[in-house]
Each structure stands twice: as C-alpha cells, then as structure tokens.
From TrEMBL:
GO terms for molecular function: ATP binding; metal ion binding; ribokinase activity. This is Ribokinase. It comes from Ruegeria halocynthiae. Pathway: Carbohydrate metabolism; D-ribose degradation; D-ribose 5-phosphate from beta-D-ribopyranose: step 2/2. It is found in: Cytoplasm. The lineage of its organism: Bacteria, Pseudomonadati, Pseudomonadota, Alphaproteobacteria, Rhodobacterales. Catalyzes the phosphorylation of ribose at O-5 in a reaction requiring ATP and magnesium. The resulting D-ribose-5-phosphate can then be used either for sythesis of nucleotides, histidine, and tryptophan, or as a component of the pentose phosphate pathway. Its cofactor is Mg(2+).
Length: 290
C-alpha cells in the first residue's frame, strides 16, 4: 500500500539560544543549522524510514529543489512535488538549552498546490491507501473529500492548530492526531471530547507524558512515553505521527503502531534537527530505554 502525503516542505533554520526570547528581547545565537523540515516532509521521511512506501504531494520554489532531492535520498516518491514561482516555505526555529523550541513559519510554496495536482497524484491511489494532511498547505478539504470518495483512509495531523480547519475536514476523517492543548481547543470549539468525535481513530499526544488512543466505541488506551534526556523536541510529534501511519499502513494493531512510534519519538528528542535526523526502523527497534 501507499501513504499519500499532502504535505508542507520547509527549510528549517535552527538557532541555538540560551533561552527562548521574551517580547522585545534580543539574543545572540550560539549556532545555526539548516535542515529539511515542514510537518509534511518530516512525516514523509518518518513513514518512509519506518518501512512504508510514501508519495509526497507538495510544492517548492526554485530555491527549494535541494529539499526535493533530499526527500528522494530518504526514500520518498517526489514525482508529485511541483516547482512553482513562489519561494519555498521555511521556518525559523529557536531551541533553548533545555530543548524547548519556538517556531516562526513562512508558508510560501506550501500554499501554491493546485487541485489538478492533487487529482493527478491521487489518480494512482487505490482503495485502502492512506492519505495524510496537516494544516500547513492549502486544498485540505478538497483532498479529504476526494480521498474519502476513493476509499482511502483519510488522516489529519491538526497542526498548526486552527479549530475551523479541523472542523471543515472532520466529517471526512478516519484518523485524527492532535496534542493535549489542541484537543482542549477542539473540545471548546465543538463541545466534543476526543472520545466523542465522529472519527474512528483519535490519538492525543502529551509530550513527555506519552499518548492516549481513542477508538470509537472502545475505552481509551494510555501509552506512557520513554524517559530520555531531551536536547531538541522539534519534529518529535511529526516522527511519532509518521511512525503511527506506517504502522497502520503495514497492518499493525494500533497499540503496536503507537508503541513503536513512542520509541521513535523518544530517540528523536535526543537529536538536534528535523527530517534529516529522524531515526530509521532498525535504530528504533535496537534502542534501549530505562
């Protein structure tokens, strides 16, 4: 099967800071690194490294062809990434000494994806394939409706969070993943707790406290996180999501997919960077945790 990812592609500019800045504060960075990033690219790389076939649907400017090449290196099918006359998306990421981060996002080419491009890509999809989206591109509702009509398993990572964006795609979803704060905001907007959302599979992540899985009609399951010394939490949630999707794609029981994703996310927070440092399946299986 294939995971089709309508996903963002960014250049991540990561600055090391002594602490996250307060309003009006000027800080000198002690380091700067450029990584392939964007929630979409991160999830594509994570799912590919977890053993799935991944086809990315997205866009870059002429300044971002290196990002498309990097995705190819990581095993992602990039035939449906178009080059557009808009600068490639990018993120300015500040990481403090404790590994916490602050992110400024420029959408760029991620909002220049056309409906024709999505339709052409998904014309090769078959019933049972997965379609995943995040809130960093345009055309999410069009893709969700098309995916549902085609019999795809439609998945949504609700970040960056906007309650309205989630509510628009909610009727078409089979899988929804969001963090604790986003779950609270969605409940405020809809009046529905995660266990009552009209979605078959819902996962709420709690960072270092793990995750909770809700399957419609069943009691929630809790999955504690592994204890590690975090140096950078950037991309950990995307790594978790990509590994869960790969587990679903490969027919794993959800509990097994989430447990494996927890291991991948635990490894990820011990590394500086985003898509370029996402662990592969061999590393995840070999990892030892206390």
């Amino acid at each position: 099967m294939t995971i089709w990812n309508l996903g963002s592609i960014n250049a991540d500019m990561v600055y090391a800071l002594p602490h996250l800045p307060e309003p009006g504060e000027t800080l000198a960075a002690s380091g700067l690194q450029r990584f392939l990033g964007g929630k979409g690219a991160n999830m594509s790389v994570a799912a590919a490294r977890a053993g799935s076939r991944v086809s990315h649907i997205g866009a870059v400017g002429s300044d971002g062809l290196w990002a498309r090449d990097r995705l190819i290196e990581y095993g992602v099918d990039t035939r449906h990434i178009s080059e557009v006359d808009v600068p490639t998306g990018h993120a300015i990421i500040a990481v403090d000494a404790q590994g916490e981060n602050l992110i400024i996002l420029f959408q760029g080419a991620n909002h220049a994806i056309t409906g024709d491009q999505i339709g052409q890509a998904l014309s090769s999809a078959v019933s049972g394939d997965l379609l995943v989206m995040q809130n960093e591109t345009n055309a999410q509702i069009e893709a969700a409706i098309l995916g549902r009509d085609m019999g795809l398993t439609v998945c949504y990572a609700a970040a960056p969070f906007q309650a309205e964006a989630v509510q628009v795609v909610l009727p078409h979803l089979d899988f929804l993943i969001l963090n604790e704060v986003e779950a609270e905001q969605l409940q405020e907007a809809t009046g529905l707790a995660p266990s009552h959302l009209p979605v078959e599979h819902v996962i709420v992540t709690f960072g270092s406290k793990g995750a909770r899985y809700y399957q419609r009609g069943s009691d929630p399951q809790v999955f504690p996180a592994h204890k590690v010394s975090a140096v950078d939490t950037t991309g950990a949630g995307d790594t978790f999501t990509g590994y869960v999707l790969a587990g679903m794609d490969r027919g794993m029981p959800m509990a097994q997919a989430i447990s494996q994703a927890n291991r991948a996310a635990a490894l990820m927070v011990t590394r500086h960077g985003t898509a370029d440092v996402i662990p592969d399946l061999k590393e995840v299986r070999a990892a030892q945790f206390d």
